[in-house]
Amino acid sequence: MELWGYWLLIIIILTTIEVITTNLVSVWFIASAIISLIVSFFTDSFLVQFAIFVLGGAIFLLLTKPLLKKKLATKKIPTNIDRILGMKGKVTEKIMPNEIGEVYVDGKKWSAYSNETIEINELVIIEAINGVKLKVRKEK
């Protein structure tokens, strides 16, 4: 097989990997493999073609990855649920370490957990929100 055939095979393999992963793993080397494929029609030197492939991929990576990451970054959509952080709540179901209890805060009942035992009717401070559960601590 001629060298251009190997470059075409590399392009197909890298494109398949990129489509499967969708994480911008090999897109830069696909571009440099295309350049190496074109160069293979002008020179038979594998060393020159391989150097273009490696250096081209590295240059494309260094120049474009920061820009692409910025463009493709998912933006966190703020919700108003964060407003309960730091609020006081009242325990409606006893909370034991490593067990789920219940807290009433901001007009709603929430599942809650803590590193300490907290009895019913004790006041707590909301420290964090993990999914649909609140991490709480006793009010001091």
Radius of gyration: 28 Å
**Stretches with pLDDT under 50, minimum 5 residues:** none
User: Number of helical runs?
Assistant: 3
Question: Roughly what percent helix?
Answer: 40-55%
Structural class based on helices, strands and sheet pairing: alpha+beta
How far apart, in Å, are the first and last alpha carbons?
77 Å
Describe the fold and architecture:
The protein is 43% helix and 22% strand. The protein has 140 residues and is an alpha+beta fold. It folds into 2 domains: 3-72, no CATH class; 80-138, OB fold (Dihydrolipoamide Acetyltransferase, E2P), CATH 2.40.50. Strands 1-2-3-5-4 form a 5-stranded mixed barrel. Strand 4 (123-130) and strand 5 (133-138) form a beta hairpin.
Key words describing this protein structure:
alpha+beta; rod-shaped; 140 residues; 3 helices; OB fold (Dihydrolipoamide Acetyltransferase, E2P)
List the helices and strands and how they pair.
Elements: H1 3-21, H2 27-40, H3 46-72, E1 88-93, E2 101-105, E3 108-113, E4 123-130, E5 133-138
Parallel strand pairs: 3-5
Antiparallel strand pairs: 1-2, 1-4, 2-3, 4-5
Helix pairs in contact: 1-2, 2-3
Short description:
With 140 residues, this protein is an alpha+beta fold. It has helices at residues 3-21, 27-40, 46-72; strands at 88-93, 101-105, 108-113, 123-130, 133-138.
